């Protein structure tokens, strides 16, 4: 059998395909087949990438913002033109259905569209005559070389949250994608170079902790953007800050869905289903814990199980049209199953059991069907921890107050959703629930490019969030200038040219 292809890297403007001492493996989650190998880069490789970026930075910083944005206009067109092709790469290495992958590429396109407009946001401020004859202005400047470390669950979209903004602001960007899904980033990187980006402005290195540590400690790297699990986000934030870097680190989540007795039940069922089982639950905005309030619970659980039980599960890599694909790896599948097994042994009721789902043409794939676990007790592992799989727990509560109180105990703070017809209840929820992204009759309140991704608590470490205007603020630093001009000895003030005119 031919060896699985080795993933390339982009260092100092050159694509290279050299194996490193350590190699990672990339699997097709639909089949379990090995489809690639990833070089695990060392600090020497990171040094070379940083050197290339530092060489490119002075000219890129001086490139007019409108010209930098023009590269993004071309990049946007290229990505749109190749969106189907890239969605197929995402589906093959990650396991999302084609429709989900295509939608995720579209979210990335929107980030580039946002970046095309950045010159307007980069405009500075000034105040003439701050003191007699003294003018003041504040302008934004790029930071220099910055890096992004990204998770497996959105191989195209999450890196695109970062580098179009960073690069259009005038920085040089080094991306370290997840070693589980490296191929999407490579193809998109080719398009970025085709759009006319000068060499060294964008680089791609691969690896695990060793490579990440080299980025976190490199003195020339000014800022780190991270998206991934909370444990790693905490480490990235503390290590990056200790090394003098600006850091934004988005972590994991446990998203609550409250269903009030007056909710439109079909709308709620649809919202819960797409929130919990879309992308096989491997989303930081996935609904994870449903809290029906009062007497609506029985009907809700029954309708949800009926509807979710009809979802089709299948291979994502061969053009089939299914509602759900596999999970990322065998190890992750086993971990998700332990949540269901554990809750069941503690007395919860597995009302819809995805553990029995089998996919005939993907016997080696990592499949788990939609699962609903009812009567989950607060404080248990399933109620508290991030599952990151297609498992929705149901914790029946007696009032909105009780739901709000349970939300207070949550370690995370990404998303929370309420289904109701009552404006007062929705307002109370929005004002008080312990999370940074709120949905009102919207199952997945993930902000789009123009808005910041405002996770709270252990779902985010840092000050400036990813996306929206905060993204631009994160990747720029301000400089304030005070200006006073002396009388020039060369000027003859009696010359009529210097007399105040009457206007023309
Ligand atoms: P992960 O934390 O395992 O990996 C993320 C990145 O960190 C990868 O590039 C990985 O190579 C690197 N990494 C892993 N372990 C490391 C270590 N010990 N030291 C240094 N670097 C390390 O996350 P994942 O499993 O790839 O992604 C899933 C997680 O990402 C979930 O928790 C999910 O909620 C989270 N996520 C959060 C958001 C958000 O916006 N909050 C968005 C998407 C995903």
Count the strands?
A: 20
Tell me the β content. Answer: 15-25%
Protein structure class: alpha/beta
Give me the CATH fold name of the largest domain.
Answer: Aldehyde Dehydrogenase, Chain A, domain 1
Sheet with the most strands, sense and barrel status: 7 strands, mixed
Mean pLDDT: 96
Number of domains: 2
Q: Per the principal axes of the C-alpha atoms, what is the gross shape?
A: globular
Low-confidence stretches: none
Q: Specify the helix fraction band.
A: 25-40%
CATH class of the largest domain: Alpha Beta
CATH architecture of the largest domain: 3-Layer(aba) Sandwich
Q: List the strand order in the largest sheet.
A: 14-15-16-13-12-17-18
Report the radius of gyration as a whole number of Å: 26 Å
Ligand list = nicotinamide-adenine-dinucleotide
Q: Please report the distance between the alpha carbons of the first and last residues.
A: 83 Å
């Amino acid at each position: 059998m031919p060896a699985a292809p080795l993933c390339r890297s982009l260092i100092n403007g050159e694509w290279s395909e050299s194996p490193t001492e350590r190699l990672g493996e990339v699997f097709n989650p639909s089949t379990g087949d090995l489809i690639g190998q990833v070089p695990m880069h060392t600090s020497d490789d990171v040094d070379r990438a940083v050197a290339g970026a530092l060489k490119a930075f002075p000219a890129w910083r001086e490139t007019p913002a409108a010209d930098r944005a023009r590269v993004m206009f071309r990049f946007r067109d290229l990505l749109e033109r190749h969106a189907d092709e890239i969605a197929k790469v995402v589906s093959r290495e990650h396991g999302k259905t084609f429709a989900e992958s295509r939608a995720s590429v579209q979210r990335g396109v929107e980030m580039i569209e946002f970046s095309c407009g950045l010159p307007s946001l980069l405009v500075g401020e000034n105040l003439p005559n701050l003191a007699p004859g003294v003018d003041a202005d504040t302008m934004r400047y790029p930071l220099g070389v910055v890096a992004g470390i990204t998770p497996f669950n959105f191989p195209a979209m999450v890196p695109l949250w970062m580098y179009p903004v960073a690069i259009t602001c005038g920085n040089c960007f080094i991306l370290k994608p997840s070693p589980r899904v490296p191929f999407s980033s490579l193809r998109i990187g080719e398009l970025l170079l085709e759009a006319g980006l000068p060499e060294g402005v964008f680089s791609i290195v691969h690896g695990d902790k060793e490579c990440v540590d080299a980025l976190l400690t490199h003195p020339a790297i000014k800022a780190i953007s991270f998206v991934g699990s909370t444990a790693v986000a905490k480490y990235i934030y503390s290590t990056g800050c200790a090394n003098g870097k600006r850091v934004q680190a988005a972590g994991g989540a446990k998203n609550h869905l409250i269903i009030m007795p007056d909710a439109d039940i079909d709308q709620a069922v649809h919202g819960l289903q797409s929130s919990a089982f879309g992308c096989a639950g491997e989303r930081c905005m996935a609904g994870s814990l449903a809290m029906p309030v009062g007497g609506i619970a029985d009907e809700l659980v029954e309708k949800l199980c009926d509807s979710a039980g009809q979802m089709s599960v299948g291979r994502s890599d061969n053009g089939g049209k299914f509602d759900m694909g596999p999970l990322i790896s065998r190890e992750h599948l086993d971990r998700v199953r332990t949540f269901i097994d554990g809750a069941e042994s503690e007395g919860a009721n597995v009302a819809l059991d995805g553990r029995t789902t089998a996919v005939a043409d993907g016997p080696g794939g990592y499949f788990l069907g939609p699962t609903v676990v009812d009567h989950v007790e607060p404080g248990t592992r399933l109620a508290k921890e991030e599952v990151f799989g297609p498992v929705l727990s149901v914790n029946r509560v007696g009032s909105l107050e009780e739901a709000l109180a349970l939300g207070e105990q949550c370690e995370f703070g990404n998303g929370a959703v309420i289904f109701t017809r009552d404006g007062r209840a929705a307002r109370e929820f929005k004002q008080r629930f312990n999370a940074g992204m709120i949905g009102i009759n919207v199952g997945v309140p993930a902000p789009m490019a123009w808005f910041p991704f405002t996770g709270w608590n252990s779902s985010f470490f840092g000050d400036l969030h990813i996306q929206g205007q905060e993204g631009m603020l994160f990747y720029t630093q301000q400089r304030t200038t005070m200006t006073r001009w002396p009388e020039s000895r060369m000027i003859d003030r009696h010359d009529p040219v210097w007399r105040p005119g009457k206007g023309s």
